[in-house]
Amino acid sequence: MRDYNTRVVVLGVAMLGGSSGLVGSFTLLRRRALMGDALSHASLPGIALAFMLATTLGYDGKYLPLLLAGATFSGLLGVGCILWIRNKTRLKEDTALGIVLSVFFGAGVALLGMVQQMKTGNAAGLEGFIYGKTASMSAMDVRLIFYASLIAIALSFANFKELKLLCFDEGFAGSRGYPVVLLDVLLMSLVVLVAMVGLQAVGLILMIALLVIPAAAARFWTDTLWKMTAYSVILGTVGCVIGAMVSAVFPNLPSGAMIVLVCSFFFFLSMFFGTARGVVARFLRRRRLNRRIDRQHLMRAMYEQIEHPDRSDTSALKPGSEPVRKTKVSIDELLLVRSWNWKRLMAAIRSAEVDELMQYRHGHAQLTHAGFIEAARLTRQHRLWEMYLITYADVAPALVDRDADNIEHVLEPHVIDRLEDLLEEQELLFPVPTSPHELGDGLTSSEEGILP
Amino acid sequence: MNQTENVNQVSPLSVDDLTVAYHRKPVIWDVAFDLPEGQLIGVVGPNGAGKSTLLKAIMDLIPRASGRVRVFGDTYRNNRHRVGYVPQRESVDWQFPVNALDVVTMGLYDEIGWCLPVRRKHRQRAMEALDRVGIADLAQRQISQLSGGQQQRTFLARALVQDADLYLMDEPFAAVDAATELAIVDILRELKKRKKTAVVIHHDLQTVPDYFDHVVLLNMRIVACGPVETTFTAENLNKTYGGRLTLLDEVNEAMRRRETSL
């Protein structure tokens, strides 16, 4: 880091990582990520040809702007070929992409071989474009990267909301009069800008990684677009800086490969531990949901056991006996009503105990007052949904939205009214007592509070 | 296609001789109609009848092979600001990292202008639109966590926030819950009260007479178009849905064969 040149290079690749992270977020969401790959691969023949042309005309063949102009030209030609093949033949885009990418790259490698044989000019270092070689970058090259990245970042920020609309809903964008094609061209130009200046640092084979990996990794952390782009910029920058520094310390390690490895390390970290969509977060969410369902099943099973005719009859007959809600239910009875195993049932009981909905002693469970209200509410809700499904069988399945916390939020009051009438007419279960009804209604919005 | 009663007014949407073809395969043929102002208009027809295509062609989203579209007597381009569009819910990726409020705000982007940020007053208006469709409390929720009905309401709010005069809606009732269906119907009636026109692609034939005043029966061509009472008849429906497997399909099949053999 003490070396001036290294510092300049690190600054350059940092800008590159940031801008490609930003542009990459949009291409990822627009599902155009592979276009960047085609573009960078197709740039190789342009580099070789530009070098050949310049040296035969007697200029410096390794003048960077010239090489990049050649790269841009042939890269765009490649993308144009892909679009042409897709539109004019019945081949799909992925096929067109595969053909163009490999043909252009192959042509590039062949041309590079010819360049190596040339008498004039020193072609050494051109292969740095393939794998990336930050060590061969001059301060002027870095300046080029710096300004190009700055332009890409500025353009993305200025048109942030337009690009967001394009990526989310191009049909709507078109209906509002946005030039969708022009916006796509803008996005593609940003990719060109970033990919071309990135060729030297990362190399054309691995350039795609910088456009895809930071953005994909960022997606695991957030569900907000501006945060996703911000994280993507940070990941891209840090990945590039670390990668370039490692490559500077060990000159035999190409910088492109190092940058990609560092970025993919971040990616795997994000994939597992990302707070929004990471594997671990999803697993935990899934488990929480299962537990919540178990809890609901348990509460309903308790309620149904309590209201069971045999039990309620006997308890009603004995004056002075405990109120109905305090009926003890043995764990064996609970085990019979559902297909759960002992372990799962016990886990549900324990968690209900923690929330003071239930007490468990000597193999018997007993609802607390709050637990009884909750159980009555859940049972009522469940039965109303069932009744809804039965009554409106023709339309119901598509319309039922049980994810909505409460039936009241989904169905109109008069529908619920009618369902409750139906429920009372039905005599196979004795109706849910009236008091929990009202109490339950009062509690409806706090379901999340009671059930973690 | 008896529209003589509306000749004095400028029709909010008038289509002449509209033909659209994808890859040389015609999707809608010679479509022509004039729609009355301030009414709720249902567009009905079987799958693949070209209903969405019709809406997209009206809005210049897809190229037309021929035809002329007039929106309030001018081109769509010039009267774009008076039209609100509700695309099909399946047309977008609901995993996209935005929340409901963001989506509704998109309806105001062209008003905000290029390169300018969304300001508080725009967010305020988007909130009001969300409130109108009854999901203001879900404004900050990521769109993948909304139910189908709530997603549809979000789309509706995005069109409402523009305060247009003509609304084009592509299957707003498809796979929504009962409460959402009622909420959408309420909004349609409120629009009508305010003399707005809504053109709605609809699938459920049973509810057409309840929801709409005017109906367009479409099956690649216009089968019938007019007030629901006189147009939405068994005979016309039979022509729309019953004839599907015969002539038009055969012609299409022949076209397709010819194309593949080329």
TrEMBL record, chain A:
Keywords: Cell membrane, Membrane, Transmembrane, Transmembrane helix, Transport. It comes from Rubripirellula obstinata. GO terms for cellular component: ATP-binding cassette (ABC) transporter complex. Residues 443-452 have a biased composition (Polar residues). One of its GO terms (biological process) is transmembrane transport. Residues 368-425 form the Iron dependent repressor metal binding and dimerisation domain. It is found in: Cell membrane. Pfam families: ABC-3, Fe_dep_repr_C. It comes from the Bacteria. One of its GO terms (molecular function) is DNA-binding transcription factor activity. The chain crosses the membrane at residues 6-26, 63-85, 97-115, 144-160, 180-198, 204-222, 229-250, 256-280. InterPro entries: ABC_BtuC-like, ABC_TroCD, Fe_dep_repressor, Fe_dep_repressor_sf, Iron_dep_repressor, WH-like_DNA-bd_sf. The keyword Electron transport does not apply. CDD domains: TM_ABC_iron-siderophores_like (cd06550). The gene is mntB_1. It is a multi-pass membrane protein. Residues 433-452 are annotated as: Disordered. This is Manganese transport system membrane protein MntB. Belongs to the ABC-3 integral membrane protein family.
TrEMBL record, chain B:
This is High-affinity zinc uptake system ATP-binding protein ZnuC. Residues 13-245 form the ABC transporter domain. CDD domains: ABC_Metallic_Cations. Keywords: ATP-binding, Hydrolase, Nucleotide-binding, Transport. Pfam families: ABC_tran. It comes from Rubripirellula obstinata. The keyword ATP-binding applies. GO terms for molecular function: ATP binding; ATP hydrolysis activity.
